[in-house]
Design goal:
The chain is 26% helix and 20% strand.
Length: 165
């Protein structure tokens, strides 16, 4: 074992987190259906992981550009049901291309475009997104982000077409 790498036990993690982390370690997109202990790893890896892997996994769950929010900066955001990404104000929404997330002029993309500043998100109109759908999308993302280190998003107000939702 390399110096500074602490070995931990999987069984000490909460079950849901243990299953997701184990799936990430084994390169799977989602946990496989298994016994109560989650995915069964090869015998030599069972119930053990390195602490630095756990921290890498947690960091990988933060959306792109999360550092802007953590630093209290303003910027832009793209989001839909599948993805969310934050980026700097100097970049155009249409220039950000991520798998499953695309904003195009004339409502051709599958994503909402917006801006953010501490405490507030303003989302532009998109003909394919009703107020209710925008609200649901934001609720899901703020809970997921809060769960993964961006807790202050829970208190942010969201505006769609200039109206508070």
């Amino acid at each position: 074992m390399e110096s500074g790498h602490k070995l931990r036990r999987l069984r000490d993690l909460p079950e849901g987190e243990r299953n997701e982390f184990t799936a990430w370690l084994t390169g799977r997109a989602a946990p496989a259906v298994s016994d109560k202990d989650g995915i069964v790893l090869p015998e030599e890896q069972q119930d053990a992981y390195y602490e630095h892997d756990y921290h890498a996994w947690k960091a990988s769950m933060l959306p792109p550009g999360s550092h802007l929010i953590l630093e209290g900066k303003s910027g832009k955001v793209l989001l839909n049901e599948a993805r969310i990404a934050f980026f700097g104000s100097g970049q155009q929404h249409s220039s950000v291309k991520l798998l499953g997330l695309s904003y195009e002029d004339d409502y051709k993309g599958n994503a909402l475009a917006g801006t953010f500043r501490p405490g507030r998100v303003d989302i532009r109109f998109h003909q394919d997104f009703s107020d209710e759908r925008v609200w649901r999308i934001w609720q899901v993302w703020k809970r997921l982000c809060a769960k993964n280190g961006l807790a202050h998003l829970e208190s942010w107000e969201v505006y769609y077409q200039g109206r508070k939702l």
